[in-house]
């Protein structure tokens, strides 16, 4: 646990399930105030909020589309109205999109992924940083990326492009605001055992495990633990970095086959 986080306020986008839910609930254990965000799952959002409060934190669940300025503004306003400030912004909302070869991809398919993953992250970071600058807050922005910011994902050029863009966005934002003591970092999970992951059973599971040197899938709680560290004072000298939580997936495990 990180005692400096107690009483601080965080917004976690896409926190009604999966990795976002785990991060929000870990923040609850850190006794933080958390704005839980959902788009189409009010029950999941309320469940996350209740779990946070059971752990000793405070929470409010807010419906918002993070790909729009209005949605991000709603989250910022909820944080200020309910908790008085914003210390941490976690841009977690993400969308995989359809698996389709680029020459068959429609502009709508491309835009849907880019709008949520890249534009949503930009808007979240922009508005949070604006608030931090206006109120002289030495805050933190954490972007939830993917191993596919480094590893190409065949049939998913929209997704890989969005995550590759997120990498350089994180680094550029970190450079732009380092002198203001606003830290910006990324977390890049590998294959995590969440309810929405299609690679957890049968032949798909075995194929996916071959890509992971540790031969196991990650847990959302393991990503959340890394998130808590990155937004804490324990990581006060870390900015512009990507922390991979991937069981070694980015270490090119195919090289093991040649040994």
Automatic annotation (TrEMBL):
Instruction: Please cite one Gene Ontology biological process associated with this protein.
Output: bile acid metabolic process
Q: Which organism is it from?
A: Bacillus gobiensis
EC number annotated for this UniProt entry: 1.1.1.47
| Protein name per its UniProtKB record | Sugar dehydrogenase
The record, for Pfam families, names: adh_short_C2
Keyword Flavoprotein tagged? no
Q: Which InterPro entries does the record cross-reference, listed alphabetically? A: NAD(P)-bd_dom_sf, Sc_DH/Rdtase_CS, SDR, SDR_fam
Family designation: Belongs to the short-chain dehydrogenases/reductases (SDR) family.
- Which keywords does the record carry? Oxidoreductase
Q: What class of enzyme is it?
A: oxidoreductase
The record's annotation in SUPFAM superfamilies points to:
NAD(P)-binding Rossmann-fold domains
Q: Which GO terms describe its molecular function?
A: glucose 1-dehydrogenase [NAD(P)+] activity
